[in-house]
Design a protein that fits this description.
mainly alpha, two-stranded antiparallel sheet, 3 helices, about 5% strand, globular
């Protein structure tokens, strides 16, 4: 799957996946959505973004979580 709106460049934010043309990390957007922030609010706070940027950040995160073993806290 191609992610045309996501850029990974070691010179930008230490190589964190970011929305192309910005320094806005994918992880930050995913955390905001997970915390209940609406896409509309994100777009108000970050006017350089488009709704498709947020959607692609979520798709990117989902695709990458499928590729890794994620350790879960077993003490719960």
């Amino acid at each position: 799957m191609a992610f045309t709106r996501i850029n990974i460049d070691h010179r930008i934010m230490g190589g964190l996946p970011c929305i192309a043309g910005t320094r806005i990390p994918v992880a930050m957007l995913v955390r905001m959505v997970a915390a209940g922030t609406t896409v509309e609010t994100i777009l108000e706070d970050y006017p350089q973004l488009e709704e498709d940027d947020v959607r692609e950040a979520l798709r990117f995160a989902a695709a990458n979580i499928d590729q890794r073993v994620v350790p879960l806290d077993q003490s719960a």
